[in-house]
Amino acid sequence: MLLTTLTCNESSQILPIACVGSEHLRQIAQPVEKITPQIEKLIGSMIATLESAHGVGIAAPQLCHGDRIFIVASRSTPRYPQAPLMTPTAMINPEIIATSDETAKDWEGCLSVPGRRGLVPRHRWIEVEYLDAAGQVQRKIFQDFIARIFQHELDHLDGIVFLDRIESSEDLYTEEEYQEIIQNDQNSNRP
Ligand code: ZN
Questions:
Q1: Which of 65, 103, 117, 148 meets the CB 3.0–4.6 Å disulfide criterion with 60?
Q2: 120: alpha, beta or left? (left if phi > 0; alpha if psi -120 to 50)
Q3: pLDDT value of residue 62
Q4: What is the pTM of this model?
Q5: Tens digit of each residue's pLDDT (9 = 90 or more) over 108-134
Q6: How far is the CA of 172 from the centre of ligand 1 (A)?
Q7: How remote is the CA of residue 26 from the centroid of ligand 1, in Å?
């Protein structure tokens, strides 16, 4: 898969991340009409902020910008050791075109919801379309972890956070509880 690489340049700023309670997280982001130098600068800052926070995805509303842009940067995590390594990829005006009927519940966290983790149902695979940072239309099929990140970030563009998707309060955990569960899972998987 050829991915457009956009590295952080010197003008890329680390921006403050809005947390739950902020009105920015509840607004509907607007389509990007043209990839202007300001949009390119925002993308650079989104990547810089995501990398500094060690996240796997970030959406413009989390940085108080109302544009339909997010960054996906899949990498291996304790919960998703098989996740593919993906260069931070800007997705502009992203849309889901088709989905699997089947959903899976798995762990999510969010830079805007510090200290909480939850089990969230998502489609197992999705077919998507977006503009890359060069303005080219990309149509792709994502599955598992990348599909989950995409669905989580797309929700941010529509004012939705993962807490809204949780089906039961029993599916919501603290970061400490999550770490303990993941640790136990890994131990029990050992031969
Ligand atoms: Zn999030």
A1: 65
A2: beta
A3: 98
A4: 0.91
A5: 999 999 999 999 999 999 999 999 999
A6: 15
A7: 12
- The enclosing H or E element of 71 equals strand 69-72
Expressed in angstroms and rounded, the spacing between residue 161 Cα and the centre of ligand 1 is 6
Going from N- to C-terminal start, the domains of the chain cover: 23-188
Q: Measured in whole angstroms, how far is the alpha carbon of residue 92 from the centre of its chain?
A: 13
9 vs 89, residue with greater confidence: 89
In the annotation, is 153 catalytic? yes
CA of 11 to the centre of ligand 1 (A): 24
Tell me the average pLDDT of the chain.
92
Identify the weakest region by mean pLDDT among 11-15, 96-100, 131-135.
11-15
- Nearest alpha carbon to residue 59 among 75, 36, 74, 42: 42
Catalytic option among 108, 153, 170, 180 = 153
Q: Which of 90, 96, 44 is nearest to 71 (CA)?
A: 90
What confidence tier does 12 reach under pLDDT thresholds 50, 70, 90? confident
> Could you tell me the CA-to-CA distances from 130 to 22, 45, 103, 137, 177 in Å, in that order?
27, 19, 22, 6, 36
pLDDT on residue 36: 97
The CATH code of domain 23-188 reads 3.90.45.10
Interval between CA 191 and ligand 1 midpoint (Å)? 34
**One-letter identity of residue 77:** T
